[in-house]
Design a protein that fits this description.
52% helix; TIM Barrel; 2 domains; two-stranded antiparallel ribbon; eight-stranded parallel beta barrel; 464 residues
C-alpha cells in the first residue's frame, strides 16, 4: 500500500500531473502497468480514510479520462421495449470476492468477445456479508477496467435493494430510512441502475391480487420518486421492479398487470417508472442444495417467462422480464433465455462455487473459512440436515471477514481460479448471445461522465 498521500503523488508523478482542476494523465501505459495495482489495494485496505478517498478519486477520474464511464442502461432498454432489437439476455454479474481479479478477468473476456451488454451488480445483503460498500465496489471494478484498457459504458447496478418485511412491519420508518440511505450512497458511488425489491411485502393470504400486490407497488412508487430526485440532472437511472419473491410461487400475468397498473396510477405527473420486471419462474438463489452439498436440477418455467416478457414489452413498454438465481442452472437452460426474450439474467453463486471448489485453493485457507462459518453462523445450522448443506449455503459469508486474505492469495492460485472463471464467462456470454453487442450498446448509450469534487486532502498538494 501507499504510506500516505505524498508517497502516492511521488510514485505516480511519471503517470499523472496534478493541476488546478485535479490532475491530467501524461502516461496511461505507465499508470496501468505500475500504479493502478498499488492504488486499488490502498483504496480497499488502508486505514486512513482521507488517503482512501484520494485513491478513489484518482481511480474514478482516471477511468473516465481513459474512457470507462459509469452509465445507465436506460436507453438500451427503451430500445428493447420498442423491439428495435432482441435475441440476447444481458448478464448481470454479482462479484462476492476476489473482486479486482474477477473484474480484470471479466474485462479481458468482454474485450475479446466484443461484448457491450453486461452489468456488474451487488445486492443489499451482499454489501453486508462481503464487506463491499458501493463506493468500494465501483472503485475496484473501474480499476480493473483501467488495468485492462477497457473503453465504453460500465453498468453498475444495485441488485435486490430490498425491503426487509419483518423490520418494515416492526418499524416502517426506520426500515424505509435505511433503504433510502443505501440508495443515496449507491447513486453517489455512480450506481446508475437500481432494482427495487419490495416483493417481500406481497401477502398471498389477501383475498384479491390487487391487495396482495398493493404494498409492493406502493413502496416501489415511493422509492422511484426518491431515485428520480437523487439522480444526476443529465442521467436517467434505470429502475427495475419485482412482482414475485425469488424462491416463492411462480409469477402470473395477472400479478404483472396488477402491479404495473398500480404503479401507473401512482405516476400521473409523468415521472419515469421502471424499465424491467423481475419475476419468479422456478429458480432459487444459490440453487436447492442436496444433503451431499450438490445442487438439485431445477426446471424453469420458460413458457411463463416468455408470456411475462411479452406482456411487459407490449402492454407496459418495458424491456422485458428478469430472471434471478440462474447461475447454478444446467448449461442446456441458458440458451433458452434469449430464445424467450428474457431481458436480463442474474448470476452469482455459480462463480462463487468455482472459487471455493477449485482444487488449487489451499486446503488450510478453505478450512479456516469453514471453521469461521461453523463458529459464527451456527444459528443457521438448524435449517440444514447435513454439514455439506450448511457450508454450501453459508460460505458466501466467508468473503467479507477474509477479504484481505482472499486478495493476498498467491498469484499462482489466483491465476488458476481466474482461468476457470474465464472459461465460464465465455460459455455464458455465448449462451446468452451477447457476443458482438458492443457496437449496438455504444450506439444507444450516451457517455456522460459525472464530475467529482477534488478531495480536500489532495487540494493541499495542488496548491503547493
Amino acid at each position: 500500500m501507499f504510506k500516505d498521500v505524498m508517497d502516492l503523488i511521488n510514485f505516480s508523478k511519471s503517470s499523472v500531473r496534478l493541476t488546478g482542476d485535479g490532475f491530467r494523465i501524461i502516461n496511461a501505459k505507465d499508470f496501468r502497468e505500475r500504479v493502478i495495482d498499488r492504488l486499488v489495494y490502498t483504496s480497499v485496505f488502508h486505514s486512513d480514510r482521507e488517503l482512501v478517498e484520494i485513491c478513489r478519486y484518482f481511480i474514478f477520474e482516471t477511468a473516465k479520462k481513459l474512457g470507462a464511464i459509469p452509465s445507465s442502461i436506460y436507453n438500451l432498454y427503451q430500445s428493447r421495449a420498442l423491439n428495435e432489437f432482441g435475441g440476447f439476455s444481458v448478464p448481470a454479474i454479482n462479484i462476492r470476492g476476489l473482486t479486482y481479479d474477477v473484474g480484470k478477468t471479466l474485462f479481458r473476456t468482454i474485450k475479446e468477445l466484443n461484448v457491450g451488454a453486461f452489468i456488474f451488480e451487488i445486492a443489499r445483503s451482499e454489501i453486508d456479508y462481503t464487506n463491499q460498500q458501493p463506493a468500494e465496489y465501483t472503485t475496484v471494478l473501474l480499476a480493473a477496467a483501467i488495468k485492462e484498457n477497457f473503453k465504453g459504458p460500465v453498468f453498475f447496478q444495485g441488485d435486490h435493494f430490498q425491503i426487509n418485511a419483518k423490520k418494515y412491519k416492526e418499524n416502517k420508518k426506520d426500515e424505509s430510512i435505511t433503504l433510502k440511505e443505501l440508495m443515496n450512497e449507491a447513486i453517489a458511488a455512480e450506481f446508475y441502475n437500481i432494482d427495487i425489491d419490495s416483493s417481500t411485502m406481497v401477502d398471498i393470504n389477501k383475498n384479491s391480487i390487487i391487495e396482495q400486490q398493493r404494498p409492493n407497488f406502493e413502496i416501489t412508487a415511493e422509492f422511484i420518486k426518491l431515485i428520480r430526485n437523487l439522480q444526476p440532472s443529465d442521467i436517467m437511472i434505470t429502475i427495475g421492479g419485482e412482482i414475485g419473491e425469488i424462491g416463492g410461487k411462480n409469477s402470473t400475468v395477472e400479478e404483472l398487470r396488477t402491479y404495473m397498473d398500480g404503479l401507473k396510477a401512482a405516476f400521473t405527473n409523468g415521472i419515469a417508472g421502471i424499465s424491467k420486471i423481475s419475476v419468479q419462474t422456478g429458480a432459487t438463489h444459490g440453487g436447492v442444495v442436496l444433503p451431499d452439498g450438490s445442487v438439485a436440477k431445477v426446471n424453469i418455467d420458460f413458457d411463463t417467462l416468455e408470456k411475462l416478457s411479452r406482456v411487459a414489452r407490449e402492454e407496459y413498454g418495458l424491456a422485458g422480464a428478469v430472471q434471478h438465481g440462474a447461475s447454478t442452472l444446467p448449461d442446456d437452460a441458458f440458451h433458452l433465455f434469449p430464445g424467450v426474450e428474457t431481458c436480463e439474467v442474474h448470476l452469482a453463486t455459480g462463480f462463487q462455487n468455482i472459487i471455493y471448489d477449485n482444487p488449487f485453493l489451499p486446503d488450510d485457507f478453505r478450512n479456516n473459512v469453514y471453521k469461521y462459518l461453523r463458529e459464527e453462523c451456527g444459528k443457521e445450522r438448524d435449517k440444514y440436515k447435513t454439514d455439506e448443506q450448511f457450508i454450501y449455503k453459508t460460505r458466501k459469508k466467508g468473503f467479507g471477514p477474509f477479504k484481505k486474505e482472499w486478495w493476498n492469495l498467491p498469484q499462482s492460485v489466483k491465476t488458476v481460479i481466474m482461468s476457470r472463471l474465464e472459461q465460464r464467462f465465455i460459455q455464458l456470454f455465448k449462451l446468452l448471445n451477447v457476443l458482438n453487442t458492443k457496437e449496438l450498446v455504444d450506439s444507444k448509450i450516451d457517455l456522460k461522465p459525472t464530475e467529482r469534487d477534488i478531495p480536500q486532502g489532495l487540494k493541499r498538494f495542488i496548491s503547493v
